[in-house]
Amino acid sequence: MDIRSIETGISVGPQIMPADLAELKHLGFRAVICNRPDGEGPDQPGFPEIAQAAAAEGIEAIYLPVQAGMVRDEDATAFAGALQRLPGPVFAYCRTGTRSTTLWSLAQAGRRPLPEILARAGTAGYDMSGVVRRIANGGRTPTATADASFPVVIVGGGAAGIAVAASLKARMRDLEIAIIDPADVHYYQPGWTLVGAGVFRPEETARTMGALIPRGVQWIKSAVAAFEPGNNAVILDGCRVVRYERLIVCPGIKLDWGRIEGLEETLGANGVTSNYRYDLAPYTWKLVSEMRKGRAIFTQPPMPIKCAGAPQKAMYLSGDTWLRNGVLKDIDIQFMNAGGVLFGVKDYVPALQDYVRRYDATLNFHHDLVAIDGPARRAVFEIREPGKEVRRIETGFDMIHVCPPQVAPDFIRVSPLADQAGWVDVDPATLRHKTYENIWSLGDAMNAPNAKTAAAARKQAPVVAENVVADIRGGAPVAQYDGYGSCPLTVERGKIVLAEFGYGGALKPSFPRFLLNGTRPSRLAWFLKERMLPPIYWKAMLRGHEWLAKPIRITAAD
Predict the structure, then answer these.
(1) Mind telling me which Pfam families this protein's record contains (predicted)?
(2) Is 460 in a helix, a strand, or coil?
(3) Range list of H helices, 2-113
(4) How far apart are alpha carbons 552 and 534 in whole angstroms?
(5) Could you tell me the residue ranges of all domains in the chain?
(6) Quick check: is 487 catalytic?
(7) 132/136 Cα distance (integer angstroms)
């Protein structure tokens, strides 16, 4: 745990875990302030989990969430009031500690000299020079002067961000690039389905971010607050400014756990789990491997979500385990899908229906999870069938695997880059922004009508790299994206239906049909998922080796 003292009575630091509250108690802290909104990261515990652990240690905990980089004056006022009200000493945290330090700095404006604010924050390891500029400019962050400037800036260090940086470096070795991302750890999220099935260990899916940033690329460890595309500027946490000549935006997607009433309070307990969070996937396996009878519910929210097949993958692998354990006949499997079809590309549905019958699962379409009572083991679903009035039902469960609703990150949704639905607005072929010609986007946060998968980002990265390089050299776009996405549907341990498709549901197989027929369950596809895709991800995709991912060239006819 990283605890940094700013002054007597107040320390700040990065995200803590529930188990850290005992140490905070031992160190004498009497109160905790959470300045990080729930659902920012896939390894982040919700505040209700922190509050419960704090209460057990006799520590007071309050929730004052602030969106990354969007610290308002009223937030600082609320923070100052909390410090006065709470018993000290107080520990405040967010993702990195920057927001908490920013709140403290703004709260001190007018009470202390600006050099003293800067010095105390600096002693704790936080550069608040941007905040001081904001204070000196009447609450506005000026972008005319930058703290740093690069020919190419990439927002997001996930699969898309690192892959496109590596692909750019492979084309222009001397190109100066910066990646902006606050996370210390990078996750291979496609592996979490197999963690939840007892096939992978969770630590196999995690690497340090510093080990993956391509050589020669500068890592700015910060969160983005806002975009000023008219000034070619990005504003960071702490009110720092980074200027760019070309910008690539790929921050991923936000898991909106809070949209389901009662969910955050019970995640990881009472039989409530999700493979969409790093620390919960092992709990999925614990529940599945120990279950002998009862009702198991698997949910899927309205689209868009990343890896649309993941909710049913969890169902199939769980059903396979119960079948192998000889207990399937005593388990009632219910698949609650807010949509109206099992899978969006019809060619793969017959094989999936075979497995639905094999596990005797009940398909419930137009059922959207809206509330959950963990201790009572009850879930509430809203049913929105076409042509009928909306109604609600309540059902019990012994285990429930929840796929959370998903939205674009907050700083994207409120930015000039977003369309009306909140996603980065791009041309679906070139992935260039429709309004700002020096901005591109890829991955889960943009609005092209493709499946949001890591395989999609693997294909998108070379397209963006080709087109950015062409732009640097004064040319028009030269590469196009065909909407490719892949969803290895793990229908049983040892077999996969390998769905590969592009825009409009067109099939896009990577292998000859005689070798691998993706519409049928295959052991070869399982081998690909379990043994080949992880090293391809770590050693090829994130290093600029574009195996089976060469971009499609734009021709005169296009």
Answers:
(1) BLH_phosphatase (PF04273), Pyr_redox_2 (PF07992)
(2) helix
(3) 21-26, 47-56, 73-85, 98-108
(4) 24
(5) 4-136, 148-253+408-553, 257-406
(6) yes
(7) 6
Residue 558 has pLDDT above 60, yes or no: no
The verdict on whether 250 is a catalytic residue reads no
Say if residue 493's pLDDT is above 90: yes
Q: How confident is the model at residue 547 (pLDDT cuts 50, 70, 90)?
A: confident
State the number of CA atoms in the 13 A half-sphere of 346 facing the CB: 2
> Whole-angstrom Cα distance, residue 197 to residue 492?
10
Active-site option among 34, 250, 307, 403: 307
Mean pLDDT (the chain, rounded): 93
**Can you tell me the mean pLDDT for 27-42?**
92
**Into which CATH architecture does domain 257-406 fall?**
3-Layer(bba) Sandwich (3.50)
Verify cis geometry, omega within 30 degrees of 0, for the bond prior to 304: yes
Q: One-letter amino acid identity for 197?
A: A
CA–CA separation, 518 vs 508, rounded Å? Answer: 10
Q: How confident is the model over 332-378, as pLDDT tens digits?
A: 999 999 999 999 999 999 999 999 999 999 999 999 999 999 999 99
148-253+408-553 adopts what CATH topology? FAD/NAD(P)-binding domain (3.50.50)
Task: Kindly state the tokens that stand for 31.
Answer: 């109160």
Return the closest-CA partner of residue 508 out of 458, 444, 443: 458
- Asked if residue 171 has pLDDT above 60, the reply is yes
Question: Going along 67-215, which residue ranges are E strands?
Answer: 90-93, 148-155, 177-180, 185-187, 206-208
Q: What is the CATH number of domain 4-136?
A: 3.90.190.10
Distances in Å between the alpha carbon of 399 and those of 102, 180, 296, 404?
41, 38, 5, 16
Instruction: Write down the pLDDT at residue 446.
Output: 96
Catalytic residue, candidates 34, 250, 403, 487: 487
Distance CA 10, CA 88 (A): 8
In the structure, what pLDDT confidence band is assigned to residue 141 with cuts at 50, 70 and 90?
low
CB 391 within 8 A of CB 383: yes
C-alpha 192/C-alpha 41 separation (Å) is 14
Give the whole-angstrom CA distance, residue 227 versus residue 418.
11
Q: Give pLDDT, residue 136.
A: 61
User: pLDDT tens for residues 253-301?
Assistant: 999 998 999 998 899 999 999 999 999 999 999 999 999 999 999 999 9
Nearest to 41 by CA among 211, 223, 310: 223
**220 strand-pairing partners:** 180
Q: Is the peptide bond before 89 cis (omega within 30 degrees of 0)?
A: yes
> Which token pair is 34?
């959470």
Paired tokens of 168:
């750019």
10 and 124 Cβ atoms separated by less than 8 Å: no
Of the pLDDT bands very low, low, confident and very high (cuts 50, 70, 90), residue 237 is: confident
Look at residue 1 in the predicted model and tell me its pLDDT. Answer: 87
Are 148-253+408-553 and 257-406 the same fold in CATH?
Answer: yes
CA 378 distance to own-chain centroid: 27
Give every CB contact of residue 345 below 8 A, 6+ residues apart in sequence.
499, 501, 505, 507
